[in-house]
Amino acid sequence: MLSFFLRRLLIAIPTIFLISIFVFGLQKLLPGDPLLVLAGEERDPAVLEFLREKYRLNDPIPVQYMTWAGNALRGDLGISLRTNQPVTELIAQKLPVTLQLAMMSLIFAVVIGVPAGILSAYRKGTMVDWVANVVALSGLSIPNFWLGIMLILLVSVKWQLLPASGYVPPGEDLWLSIKTMLMPAFVLGTALAATLMRHTRSAMLGVLTSDYVRTARAKGLSERKVVLKHAFRNALTPIVTMTALLFGELVAGAVLTEQIFTIPGFGKLVVDAVFNRDYAVVQGIVLVTAVGFIVMNLLADMAYVLLNPRLREA
Amino acid sequence: MKHLTLTTALVAAMALPAAAQDLRIALQSDADVLDPDQSRTFVGRIVYASLCDKLVDITPDLQIIPQLATEWTVAEDGMSIDMTVREGVVFHDGTTFDAAAVAANIERSQTLDESRRKSELSSIASVDVTGDYTLTLNLIAPDATVMAQLADRAGMMMSPTAAEAAGVDFGLNPVCSGPFSFGERVAQDKIVLNRFADYWNADAINFDSVTFLPIPDTTVRLANLQSGDIDMLERLAPTDLAQANADDSITVVSAVSLGYQGITFNVGNGEKSETPWGQDKRLRQAFSYAMDRDAINQVVFEGAYAPGNQPYPNVSPWYDDEFPIEARDVEKAKALLAEAGYPDGIDLTVQVPNTTIPLQLMQVVQSMAAEAGIRIEIVSKEFATLLADQSAGDYQASQIGWSGRVDPDGNIHQFVTTNGGINDSGFSNPDVDAALNAARKVPDTDARKVEYDKARAILIDEAPLVYLYHQSWITAFDSRIEGFTAYPDGMIRLEGVTLSE
Predict the structure, then answer these.
(1) Fold category of A98-312 in CATH
(2) pTM for the full model?
(3) Which residue intervals define the domain Solute-binding protein family in the entry (chain B) (predicted)?
(4) Are residues B272 and B288 in the same domain?
């Protein structure tokens, strides 16, 4: 059991290493010269040359990577070409924002998606199933930016119920913080709820026709107990995996939603960094996101074990 | 007791404008590093307008007026400028502002390795501090553009104590002498400035703090203003103009910018200039005749910008009235093509930044050119790539603009003189070089105008750059805000601006 997790952790190290090399290489393949943008409109050649030296962009690419990796191992992720801020500081500023958004979105997704999935599987082929599927499909198909702008126009401009955009740290004003993030979390959450609903539905459909459910019914258990306790618990594994993966995706940043609601999270940071060829920032975020994904996968694995006693012996 | 309450209420009412007020301003993007010597973004300059005073400022009609420098005289031979600076000014850290501080600032702008201001101040050879509040700028050669440079980032005064201590990291905690001091910054979220009690012109400032919020989406920026989450926004999109105008609680003001947008042709920058487009000016003239500049402004920008055919808008004192914006003439364009040997039309590849506005613009340009027989292929590129290709001469024509400078020199010299720093077009003409170099040196405005007009006559004929329009800075704000003036440099100046409750 413990060795299983240790093994997983050990595999994670080369994974992160390979990801960072891959991303570094990809960035260098991008055409265009970041310094032409950074040097200002006049593009003074002396400034350009100085910056190339300063950020060691004249070094061969493997040397650049080794320099970066060496510093990263010591906890120094470099500084942003654009704002001169240390990358670790940028990440420390953005990570709580992204985590809060991810968690609130996930709550929306689970609260909407899982019950809808259970219901539509239970009432398969009926009007309920049909409606749930149409809603789920709409959730998947409606673009986030459109739903976001519509919500802002309706909820903030017309009804003036919630702040239109921005971010307030929970430490500053918890209630305002939640209020500000309600709309973006809803927008993200609905899209994810659709995915989650579809997965829950198919998992439940598989389980509901199995023998032990028939036995449970034959025993005379209430439908509620049959569905929630016997069927749902066994359908949980794929749902948990899906939820963990969705959370990982959320941590990587929801660019469009962040852009619309002006949330200073990872998505916006990484997109700006890519356009500005802010190498250190892109590398730093990729590293953190990769670690995030791996941790979520580990947590999901641990959850299986808790949910499914049979795995404990394995 | 009742009396007392009434008196208190009266006092409170009279003191109302002084109540704690935060002004929230939405910016189109996040500023870069907050060090005037290293900074390069437009939004950064908007923040500086509240944070860092400059030696001189401009009026809306581009006259140079005192800010920290109260008087200046250019020597007879144009080789030096005597300057007197304001007494009783302190930086946000308490350091006294004096002539020595000016000298230290100019030295930093000229010598800091990271400085982006070097070329702007390249004509200053040395600074002599002649008294506590007097100094002399010694020039390498007569330069009529120096004072205009000092009206922007090159003239912003930073606390020498703080600059010395922080070095290249000054931007993380900038210390200047403006009406507001630096509070905090969260990247891509906000920049907060607090009222500076010891500001020399503190009476003109009516806010306790200013918060700058980067909100990139134009629709969301306006929605925030309508919902009252912000008080002011810069660069309202022309497409949102109708909506903003229809809202009584919003005031919209605009000023035509100092910059321009147009098409740069590659006429001498590497192999790609050796095409008919680079070698035959008649084709470029034909292209210009095929453009309906007014229609471009109406179709793409709802009429909110200004059509243009020169680097300066036609409201500028530097505009050459000899060459007004001509009406579209498709027949003339066709005739020019035929004369150049292309009666059946010709292909042209134009590179364009892959963002909404440039693409929309190019689609309109494309259809106008097509009617004259010019078949445009649009190649959209991400900005960093576009710049690299343009600088390397790997393009035939490029849709790019310029944000604009106060002095006309900054909008023309470096683009079309033979050794110009950003002459991506590769244009070279001895008469243009002579005229534009002369215009740099003569101090007299009228004499300068004569030189610019000489260059303009040649440039209109040769057409290495075909200008299309000038952006307007459209600022929208809560109607309770009073006293705001739009400037052609797009800056938000808060002196005398009030927000009534």
Answers:
(1) MetI-like fold (1.10.3720)
(2) 0.86
(3) 63-420
(4) yes
